[in-house]
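Today's session is about reading a structure prediction critically. Students often jump straight to the picture, but the first step is always the sequence itself: look for stretches that repeat, for charged clusters, for runs of hydrophobic residues. Only then move on to the predicted structure, which in these notes is written as discrete structure tokens rather than atom positions. Here is the chain we will use throughout the hour.
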Amino acid sequence: MKIAIVGATGEVGRMMITCLEEFQIDAELDLYASERSEGTILYFNDDTITVKKLEENSLQNKYDYILFSAGGAISKNYAPLAAEAGNTVIDNTSAWRRTVHIPLVVPEINGDMLKGYEGIIANPNCSTIQLVLALNPLHLKYGLKKVIVSTYQSVSGSGHKGVQTLEKQKQGSDDNGIYSERIELNVIPQIGSFQDDGYCQEEDKMHYETARILSLPDLAMVATTVRVPVLYGHSEAVYAEFERTIDLAEAGNILSSAPSVKYHDNTYVTPHNLGKSNDSHVSRLRFGTDNKSLTFWNVANNVRLGAATNAVRILIKHRELNQS
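Below is the predicted structure for this chain, in token form.
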């Protein structure tokens, strides 16, 4: 199998290489990045790979899969060229998530739409992926009606510049870096620019993507997204209302058996506890305002599950469904 990664030297691109190794994907790998990163040496299964400069003809070669994580503008320009050359593209940016004919996929939930599909596949937003993995099994049993979620998102969700900004401030810098406010010892209730309705871009992404992935166009949902001074790992406080009466022990059992979900009954998980986990962790499960509602704490590694892991799982699912 031949695979290319566009944006290979970035935080998510490097994690894509790691996930391909961890999921034991046997592949010949080509790595692309900007001119600034050309010549960088990276490793895949102990083999050295020299990063190439991305050019318009780079992706005219035939690959089994091309993974994009180089920003929306690059994806908008290069992903169609790669798809026109007969390549299956898995894009980690927001460039194609609202394009109706392009699948927006979390394989454990709606992976079957990949059968017979060729072209661009959109990888959802990090905060959405961990949320829907936890909500979907509960929805299938009880019928989801409403979601209210507050997120506590790490600086790595802003890319390497977010990590650098926090690290520099911890060392005494007064520069806000890429943020509107200081992030060290602070929280910022804004991720992305504000829209006319008062919601910021990250909140709007969660509203749209959650409803689409769960096939619930009328889902009532409110998100408040907050950047916090944590390096890796997004956390979410979730309140959900359902159509049917809930048995709390049964709900715990449902989460315990759900794919890519780890349920913690008598303890809770923090970003610091995540390590190399590729799962969506659910804890502090309890009734909400009545026995048709639940509230819980949800934590996941945003660079792994929220980006690279889901992209590689899309690759695996697509190959599984379309191997001749």
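Discussion point for the tutorial: Residues 127-302 form a domain with the Dihydrodipicolinate Reductase; domain 2 fold (CATH 3.30.360.10).
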